[in-house]
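Handout, page 2. Input:
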Amino acid sequence: MADQGRRRSAEGGIVRAVMASFSVFRSSALPVVAALLIGLSPSGTVSALDTQSATAQTPAQPAANAAPLPRVFLFATGGTISNKSGGRLTVDELIKSVPNLDRRVRADGEQFTNVASGAITMDQWLSLAQKINDKFKKEQDLAGIVVTSGTDTLEELAYFLHLTVRDVRPVVVVGSMRNPSTTGYEGVANLEDAFVVAADPVARDMGTLVVLNDEINSAREVTKTDSRLLSTFSSRDYGVLGTVFDRVAIFRKPVRRHSAKSEFDVAAITSLPRVDVILTYQGAPGDLIKAAVDNGAKGVVIAGAGAGATSGTQGEGVSYATDKGAFVVTTTRTGGGGIGGSGRGGASRRIGGDDLQPVKARILLMLALATTSDPVEVQRMFREY
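Output:
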């Protein structure tokens, strides 16, 4: 005990001497303290004070083997996100509009088109899907792809890409509700989020995603629910797949077939067959269905009332269509729920559209009929996708 007391007294004297010298030789005090503390430490290890001193004297250096930033490619198609007064933003201007994007990803892009979403044709859909597939195939270092679109038909383009881009890497479709010349333009924030999601490995094997308003939705489930609100895109009862704020957070993943597991090969499809959507309402005539078939429609999607009910003479029109060899898919106009079953046995051309929105049932039917004319196979596709 006496030895310990003498040691503490000696150590106290040393510390008091060091503190006295610190007032005179302030610039060199920290190394002295560090050296003395190392000597006093029974284990001889460097204390937190020593570490701070060393850090203060040595400027931070970048890691010599730092991994390169993920690379993301942008296909710009137009839409409100680029529609400023006096002209549309180009793909280069969109990329440059995102502050400090070069700290998050390596971004480049291509101007695929620059029009309103409603002006894009089915042939351009095929061309865009082929371009994305080729891009992924040739550039294995690419983390993901972003596609800008007008919001009016964004969910349709997104679902088409969900079924036809055959790669595990993410495709993110993004747009904005306000244009660049409007107060509150949210396009830059949405675009930044889209790049971040496309670059994140956690987004792999989720198919095509729709990213707006800090939310990540599946292309299969999401729909536009309001003509003006920034929060317009919703997956209703299904809920979002995730969010993107300071990081990407994924809560669940799609379970239906898509992307890399899809059988739809756009390289083998030269054109998409005509499929029309017809709404059910009180007293709806069946001759509209007949007219669609007579004018070349290979399929008709009925946006039925409630659980798929038709009205007026629509039943006659449906029978006319199937007798002519056309397919009829029944969906609901309610925005929720689903229509199951094939209606009339395994070989029937009358098919339940499950929980797909009418416009998305049209897309799946177009791709199905571009691939096969077998009713059993078409029914299978509506179960699996």
